[in-house]
């Protein structure tokens, strides 16, 4: 598959990709490198990974990062309650060989595979979502995993991916991710879509919407994004707004309809007030 074929296949799943994004995915697969996607919330980073998994007909394994996430939640953990049950069962069955019981405790069936381990064990697209939420130590840990796609579990030995999965990392840029991690990856910045692309996205996702209304929504959102807002609307929000306007039976965006529906697009009262003023002028 070349980059253009990837773009077309993504479109068939409902994802309207920029040529540069399709090219970045192609390169990531070609060079076997993780792809680091950065951009504002709602520009389609997570969805791009989901759509790509659909194109490749592979499961998407998603690791959602958060503050305080560590290896036991990302990679594997031992199933402590089940291990306890096993010890009890062994005891009541009259087993006294302590070494044997202990040895059995670290069997694969007592291992809880978290997303990163699962991604080593089965073909998939691996999404490491919102890395910017995790802390420095976790980044260092990711760097290690991403460099050899293998881990060693002391009790079980080494587990390595047969071939590294296509890996996509995303960041909403709430903080800078370290250069070391970025260096390991190909980098792609996702912008808010152009008016034309946003119209296509709206009409792809909401086939019931007329061209004129989709056009008006996209041009209005473009104007809104130029304001100095607390939170500029992403594509997710323009789609919500479009769905709301559609539900209201709108044919165009009158100030009255805008007043009723802006809560789908903007999530801060100050932003809503600013946009109301813009649309009334
Ligand atoms: N290029 C696109 N084509 C189709 N839908 C898109 C596109 N970009 C964003 N979307 C829609 O916007 C929503 C939000 O995108 P998402 O991937 O969650 O954003 P992010 O992860 O960047 O915050 C998705 O559910 C998807 O429906
Ligand atoms: Mg996301």
Q: How would you describe what is shown here?
A:
By secondary structure, the chain is an alpha/beta fold. The protein folds into three domains: 3-66 and 120-189, 3-Layer(aba) Sandwich (Rossmann fold); 77-108, no CATH class; 195-280. It contains 14 helices and nine strands. Strand 6 (150-153) and strand 7 form a beta hairpin. The N and C termini lie far apart (49 Å). The model has no long low-confidence stretch (mean pLDDT 95). Magnesium ion is lined by residues 45-46, 129, 170.
What small molecules does this complex bind?
A: adenosine-5'-diphosphate, magnesium ion
The low-confidence runs, each spanning 5 or more residues with pLDDT under 50, are: none
User: What structural class do you assign from the helix and strand content?
Assistant: alpha/beta
**Number of discrete helical segments:** 14
- Helix and strand element order: HHEHEHEHHEHEHEEEHEHHHHH
Q: How much is the radius of gyration in Å?
A: 24 Å
The main pleated sheet reads as:
5 strands, parallel
Fourth-tier CATH superfamily name of the largest domain = P-loop containing nucleotide triphosphate hydrolases
CATH level 3 topology of the largest domain: Rossmann fold
From the spread of the alpha carbons, the general shape counts as elongated
Mean pLDDT, as a whole number?
95
How much of the sequence is in beta strands?
5-15%
Estimate percent helicity: 40-55%
Strands ordered across the widest β-sheet? 2-5-8-1-9
How far apart are the first and last residues' alpha carbons, in Å? 49 Å
CATH class of the largest domain: Alpha Beta
The CATH architecture classification of the largest domain is 3-Layer(aba) Sandwich
Overall strand count: 9
Number of separate structural domains: 3
């Amino acid at each position: 598959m070349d980059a253009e074929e990837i773009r077309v296949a993504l479109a068939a799943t409902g994802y309207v990709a920029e040529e540069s994004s399709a090219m970045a995915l192609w390169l990531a697969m070609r060079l076997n490198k993780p792809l680091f996607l950065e951009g504002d919330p709602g520009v389609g980073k997570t969805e791009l990974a989901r759509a790509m998994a659909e194109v490749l007909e592979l499961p998407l394994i998603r690791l959602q990062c958060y503050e305080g996430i560590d290896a036991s939640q990302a990679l594997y953990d031992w199933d402590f309650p089940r291990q306890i049950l096993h010890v009890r069962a062994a005891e009541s069955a009259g087993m006294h060989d302590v070494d044997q019981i202990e040895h059995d405790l670290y069997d694969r069936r007592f291992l809880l595979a978290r997303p990163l381990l699962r991604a080593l064990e089965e073909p998939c697209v691996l999404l490491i979502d919102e890395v910017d939420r995790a802390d420095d130590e976790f980044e260092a840990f990711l760097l290690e995993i991403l460099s050899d796609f293998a881990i060693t579990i002391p009790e079980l030995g080494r587990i390595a991916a047969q071939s590294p999965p296509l890996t996509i990392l995303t960041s909403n840029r709430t903080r800078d991710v370290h250069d070391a991690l970025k260096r390991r990856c190909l980098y792609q910045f996702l912008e808010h879509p152009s008016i034309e692309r946003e119209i296509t996205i709206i009409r792809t996702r909401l086939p019931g919407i007329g061209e004129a209304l989709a056009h008006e929504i996209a041009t209005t959102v473009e104007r809104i994004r130029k304001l100095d807002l607390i939170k500029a609307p992403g594509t997710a929000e323009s789609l919500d707004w479009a769905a709301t306007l559609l539900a209201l039976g709108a044919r165009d965006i009158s100030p009255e309809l805008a007043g009723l529906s802006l809560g789908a697009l903007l999530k801060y009262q100050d932003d809503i007030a600013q946009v109301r003023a813009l649309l009334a002028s």
